[in-house]
Amino acid sequence: MLPEKIICIFFPYKLVVVLDRVVWLYLWETMPGYEYGDYEENVDIPYRRVLVTGATGLLGRAVYKEFQNNAWHALGCGYRRAQPRFLRCNLTDEDAVRAVIQDFQPHVIVHCAAERRPDVVEHHTEAALNLNVHASGTLAKEAAGIFLIYISTDYVFDGRNPPYGENDAPNPLNVYGKSKLEGEREVLRHSPGAAVLRVPILYGEVERVDESAVTVLWDKVQEGAESCSVEHCQQRFPTYVNDVARVCRQMAERRLQDPSIQGIFHYSGKEQMTKYEMACAIADAFNLPSSHLIPMTEQPAGTGAQRPQNAQLECSRLALLGLGVEPIPFKTAVRDSLWPFLYDKRWRQTVFH
After folding, report:
1. DSSP letter at 107?
2. What's the pTM?
3. Residues 157-211: tens digit of each pLDDT
4. For labelling alongside 307, which of 60, 200, 300, 313 has CA 20 to 30 A away?
5. For every residue of 296-319, which 3-state class applies, written as one string?
């Protein structure tokens, strides 16, 4: 006796029964040549819904793709670059945020949208605070009962005493770091069950090389003939957005069974590099010369927002929970990210084949 409101679809030798988010496949018993007996297979269907803000950005695109490729129904939203692929939503508009959440009813929200450029935040502080702080608070208020992952930054620390654990006291040096720290506090105040995921400098598949502070070094690497200086002071831990996206998905899936997945988490790449060392590694990944790159060991005065010297993140909490992701090596990931921007695409045939 089948329960009410079951959809039954008949195929030759199979009956597919769809009932409340789970699919069972039963072998039709009269199929010739098959051994008879009970057969049951649990097959995922995309009933789990995730809302990704900032889905047009570097990290947001990777997060959206990661969830979509792993049996989640993903809705991405953006603003200026949203249409036609993503939903256009102004996150500073409370009514618009409320409408999206009520209409889509996500199980999880990954909040990637932010003004993440420290120098821009210094000069356009009000607009940055509206997005990084006020919009994050609004999202947390409207997301009552929904698991929210807020993407934050290693710049909440001053970089004087690394590595930094989740319980270490923040002390941001610039307005960007302060805005993200205030965003963390707003999110956790309005949604105590939310998670904050702090990450360092990010890179990945970019639409333009200046979309990441890592891939923007590509132009200097390819100049070749002319000497150019590259910063060799600040210690960074470049982190691949595809790895961060996997962490977000694993956190979301664990949270569906374990409500203790909340609070502050850190995730970071493991390779420590200055920008000069990143540029040399990029050159090496593409078998390009790096002798024209000159390490700049002193930060010029008046070069924008102050950066921490070394804000290395200690990531043991994720690892202890079995949610850590082994980072893809920098040279491998940066090569995958940058090869479309090669001046001479014939290089790809000699390196990859």
Report:
1. S
2. 0.83
3. 999 999 999 999 999 999 999 999 999 999 999 999 999 999 999 999 999 999 9
4. 60
5. ECCCCCCCCCCCCCECCECCHHHH
